[in-house]
Amino acid sequence: MDFLKNKLLTIVLVLCLAFTIFVGFTASKKGNTGTIQEAITATIAPVQKYFYIAGQRISNIFYFITSISSTRKENTQLKLEVEELRQKLVGYDSFKRENEEINNMLKFKNSHPELTLKGANVIGKVGDNWFNIILLDVGESDGVHKDQYVINSQGLIGRVIETTNSTSKVITIIDEKANIPIKISSTGEIGMLTGVSSNGSKSECKITILPIDTKANVGDAVVTSNILNNENSVVPQDILIGFIERIEDEKPNLVKSAYIKPVVNFSRVEKVMVIIK
Are residues 137 and 56 part of one domain? Predict the structure, then answer.
């Protein structure tokens, strides 16, 4: 491309130079400034015009090509800068969310000075449903034991079912085997909370064996009960679990079941606290 450009410009310059020399030569001759010069000028002027126009077009073409190349480089650089800014924004959002969660957990801890809490990070999820069982980065060396309860700033997460020296496995309240003792805040009725099997992304819990004449209503809050399964369990009262979405009759057993929407967003759980004592 550069060779073609140089060749065309050389041709144009040579022709223009030859024309200039010729005109100057003829102009220097006495008696040739009249009819002959006019005839030559009249003959060559259209040719010169076309050479000029052609030269301008060629120059414009090469300028356009150069501009395209420059524009592509600028676009590539802008894309890189946009991607860098996007990554920084993602990092900022993650940091902001983590900071808010830590502040909320500190508020909870300060409001419950009677509890000994151990902070932990979610480092994995286990099983077919990723949100039913989670893995934490704390274990027996941190004072964590089986059947201790796990919370975050929103509410109850679940309870520890297995530990190693440095990790622990937690069954969440949306698992069918959770079996968490609870209380309906408005009526004081107690029951057992389990998860509800679901193929979709909806997280739901269920209170079983409510009295047929229960006074519970849709919208009532469900909280933790201080009923203990063993000596390792410490369950402070009134930790929020969720709200009743619907109540259904279990006719064969003459009881009712209440379905609960948890307040915890299990798809976004990253930091939790284990209730040590």
Answer: no
